[in-house]
Structure formats: C-alpha cells, structure tokens
Amino acid sequence: MAAVEVENLSVHYGPLRAVDDASFTAEFGEVTAVLGPNGAGKTSTIETCEGFRQPTTGSVRVLGLNPWTQRTALHREVGVMLQDGGVYPSARVGETVAQFCRLYDRGASADELVARVGLADRSIATWRRLSGGEKQRLCLALALAARPRVAFLDEPTAGVDVNGRDDVRAIIRNLAAEGCAVVLATHELDEAERLADRVVLFNRGHIVANSTLANLRSSRTTVRFRSSPSLDAVALTRHIGLDVVTNGDEFIISFSSPDSSMASDLVSRISVWLGSNSLPLHDLNVGGERLEDIFRMLTKDQES
Amino acid sequence: MNPLTTQIGAELSLVRRNGEQLLVTLGIPLLLLGFFGSVDILPSDTDEPVDFLVPGILALAVMSTSMVSLGIATGFERSYLVLKRLAATPLGTGRLIAAKTVAVVCIEAVQMALLVALGLALGWTPNSANWLLALAAVILGTFAFAGIGLALAGNLRGEVNLAASNGLYLVLLLLGGVLFPLDRLPPFLEAIGRATPTHALADVLADSLMSAGAHTATSWLVLLGWAIVMPAVAARTFRWT
Question: Whole domain around residue B173: which residue ranges?
C-alpha cells in the first residue's frame, strides 16, 4: 500500500475545475514533489489529501484512510505544514511546539524538536518576533510534532536563508530516510531537484508529468551553448529541424533521445553551421534536461 | 496531559497574554461597577445605585467574555490560520470548542467572584437570591453571546470582526439597560432594548438575585431565544478558514 493514493481526483469550485482527473501515489521513504504554476491545482490536491477539502469525484486514501471522513484518525499520524501562518502572533516558540507535541499520543520531544529545527535559542520568542525563515522552521517543527508517517510540507524553505535551507533539506531527507512519506509542494524547482525522488507536475488542473526525477530527466536531452546574440535562431531551427529557444546569449535545443548518437550528430551539425556563418561556439553542454526546462516546456501554455 | 487539557491550557495562556482581552473582560465591568456604584449620578430609580448596577454589570461581564473576548480571539485565530492548523491535528472540532468553553467558564467564574465581591463591598444587598437560577441565566447568556461572537468571527475578517464586536458591545451596553433603566429611553429604543440579550440577562439576574425583575417571563423567553438561535446561526455559517 502506498502512503498516499490519489485516484481520478477532481475538485471543482462551481464552474472552475481546479483539479481534473488526477492520479498519483506517494511512497514511504520517498520525497514526492508536487509542482506547478500558480492555480495549477496542487494546493487543492494537497488540501484534499490533508482532509480540508472533499473531492468532487474520485478518491484519496492516506495511510489507507479517507481524509474527509476519517480526519481525526488520520491526523494522529500525519504532519502538516501550511504555506504560511498557523500560529497566534503572541504564542511563544517553545510553548507552541510543546502544545503540539502533547496533542499526539506518540508526539515528539518538544525540546529535541526545537533544537532540531535550529530554534533552541529562540524558544521564548513570540511568533511576531520571528524572521520569515524562523517562522518556516517553527511551522516545520509543528509538522514534525506527530512523528508523522506522512508529512505534507508546503513551501518549507520559503524565506529561509542559504544556511537554513541546508538544515531544512537535511531534516526532510532524514524524515524520508526514517521511512516517512514526504509530500512537498513547492514553487522552487531547485528545491525539488535537490530533494525529490518523484515529481508530480500539475498544469491547469491536470497532471502533465508523474515520474521519478531520474526518469523525467533522462527521457529528454538538452544541448546548450552560447554564441553571438546576432545568431539567427529561426535559421538554425530550419537547419537542424528542432526548435531553438533563446535565453539571452544562451541557445537551448531540447529533444527526445531514443539513442545517444543523435546528440553527437546534432552537435556536429550545429558546429558546422556556426562555423559557416562565422559565429562563435562557447560553453557547449549536452545532458539530461533540467527540471526547470521540463517545467517550462510542460507548462508553457499557462505561462504564455 | 491529553489533547483537551493541553488545549484548555493553551486557551487560558492566550487570554492571560492578551492584555486587551483582560481589559475588556475584567477591567471595564469592574471599572463601571466601581465608579457608578460609588457615585449616585445615574437614574437608577433605586435608593442604592449598586443594587441596580450589579445584575446589569454581571450581564455585561458575560457579554464581554463570551461575545467580545471569545469572538475577537477566534476571529483572529481564523485570520492567522490557527484554526486551520489545529484542524490538522487529532484535537478535533469538538475538543477545540470544549476547550474554548472551559476557558470562557473559567474567566466568567473569576469575573463573577470579583464583581460580586466588589458589589458587596460597595453595599449591594442580595434579596432572596436564587443563585442556581442566576447560574442558569448566566449559562443561557453565555450560549447567546458566544453564538453572536462566533457568528461574527466565523464570517468577518479579523480586523472587521474586532470593530464589529466592539461596536456591538457599545450598542448593547447602551441599549441593554445595564447602566440606567430602559424606561428612560424613547419608546422605540426601549422596545429594541428589551429585545436584546443583554437586557434579558440583566433582567433575569435582577429577578434571581434581587427579586427585582421587571418583565421576567418575557426576558427568560428572549434570552432562551437568543441562546438557541445564535449558536445555530454560528454553527451553520462559521467558516474555519
């Protein structure tokens, strides 16, 4: 049994189809990143998994339980980190963590948890006195208070400084290593790329990619290079028969790669074409596609 | 410590830390009773102003705690997503409401003790007091005012709810017959005043504690009506996020 099973889920708000026929699973011991542009349907999906929303059609099971009808039983073993807020401004860090730990039968040790998220020296500070990053750490601590078997984390590193991000990532990796199923909703593709084992990408309410990160990246190849800004991308596109995307002085060509010879052949043709047009070739890079590129390609209709 | 006692502790801790809530729940009723009980400047139609004031101020205290304090705190908890976050724990709605109820009852017990003590110190003389009946009235009043407070808190933004709760508190203070008899008002305002839960509670408390209720049967019915209707409205319309 998967930790989270979403099957043909649809969530409608009146005429708006926020989520339409979405299916995916999240496994124990893995980090599943749920990605997508704003309004793509990821928050509606996660809130349905958390028991905050009722599916319009389809089904959701978390730890084998129906989140809508078996909410209290589910919340004994699930950790939730909201995108923001969730704590009263005058509430103190230590007291709040202790309160949440006591709400669970097998709750974590409050002192250990405060130390684990790096807030031991801010234990008596109130929520309103915390920086954005400290607030995120406190919210993460509250999500871990249950010693969860499934953790839904919404933007866990938003507003956290560079060193703090490393700490948060380490906590999330440890959580998965201990067997917890981590479902991570984030806009930060770099974060997903560093942490995720599996990626579920939403666009306009539909899942447009659902695979392990490794599979997703290896399914396509990208050739990147720099040249003169005067390079005629349309002419190059005609010459090689593949779309050339420009990003400043960087040129990107992405394609499905059933065999590895296609990439070397392509590089050779580009190189000859540049030479015949007296254009330079710098920083040539051939490899698996970055998550950012995959995201752009699969969601470009929404971005445009 | 189980989830319920944990949450009761959290609720009481929150009240203790929010000074402005303590000002509304304890400070204002004590100040009004202390001041107007000491100086005979209100048209109380009684020999001792404190005899008129104590039942009304007790009603005001119930309104302060169960409508204003509870409503404002809950409204901000909703705005700050505290309720949403708690909803994702094993606490559950039932225990959250129970914890808030216990916190309100604890504060009201302190209020009643302090106000009765101050009233007695100022010369208040209960007359054939039926404390059980008074307790029943306070319970009904708590339901009525908590229903109003939660109906506002569950539908308005935190800041708007703050303004609405305080504004309503002032209106009910003036129209509730707490500081002066309602028959001193123009007839149409008197009629509105008699329909308010504040006057209904003050009147049944005056009858229970002083045998001085004016329209006691009607006031019990009015109070009962508010105590049934407003919690039902709150339960039906309350939005947790």
Answer: 2-237
**Percent of chain B, pLDDT > 70?**
96
Interface A–B counts its CB contacts (< 8 A) at 67
What is the tens place of the pLDDT at every residue in B144-186? 999 999 999 988 988 899 999 999 999 999 998 888 888 888 9
Measured CA distances, A222 to A226, A229, A254 (Å): 13, 20, 4
Contact state of B80 with A89 under an 8 Å Cβ cutoff: yes
Of A230, A239, A238, the residue nearest A273 (C-alpha):
A239
* Domains identified in chain B, total number: 1
Q: What is the dihedral of CA A250, A255, A261, A266, to 10 degrees?
A: -40
B103-123: per-residue pLDDT in tens?
Answer: 999 999 999 999 999 999 998
How far apart are the C-alpha atoms of A223 and A251, rounded to whole Å?
8
ipTM of the complex: 0.78
Q: Which residues of A20-36 are buried (b: 16+ CB within 10 A; e: fewer)?
A: bebebbbebebbbbbbb
Asked if A72 reaches chain B (Cβ–Cβ under 8 Å), the answer is yes
pTM over 0.90, yes/no? no
From the list B10, B84, B90, the residue facing A86 with the nearest CB is B84
Indicate the length of chain A as a whole number: 304
Could you give the CA distance from residue B93 to residue B168 in angstroms, rounded to a whole number?
Answer: 27
Contact A88 B91 (CB under 8 A): no
DSSP assignment string, B45-71: SSSSHHHHHHHHHHHHHHHIIIIIIHH
